[in-house]
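Recap from last week: sequence in, structure out.
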Amino acid sequence: MAQAEAELDTSHAPQKSGRKGLLIGGVLALILGGGGFYAVHSGMILGGHDSGAEPAPPPEAPVMPNIAFIPLDPILVSLGSGSHALRFLGQLEVDQPRLEEVTKLLPRVIDVLNSYLRAVEPVELEDPAGLMRLRAQMLRRIQVVVGEGRVRDLLIMEFVFN
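Predicted structure tokens:
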């Protein structure tokens, strides 16, 4: 019976709170965290900045390409049975040395755009991706007319479909 009482006494003994271990863990966490911050900040880890070197020079401004824009005359075409109309206004992006060559060919460019836009079905214009396909088709036709490498891009300034 004495043995049973001894077991009861140990089972009701107050448990240790573990505050000593928690305090040691907290102090170690602060020391290791501070050491890690210093190692990263000083460049010992992850290749931080070198405080002894001169600062890098600021990046140079990008060089603007030597381009020009040629405005196209507005184009208004009726589509389908005449119940729909399309108004198009655009500009051609060309290299500055090619400006005069392309400007001389503008009547042909307008002609090919008129012919192409009159052949477009209204259903194609209602498609959300239709404008991108039309733009690519028009640019390709323009490049065929003026010659390869003379026109860099076709910019659509206005595209109204009623």
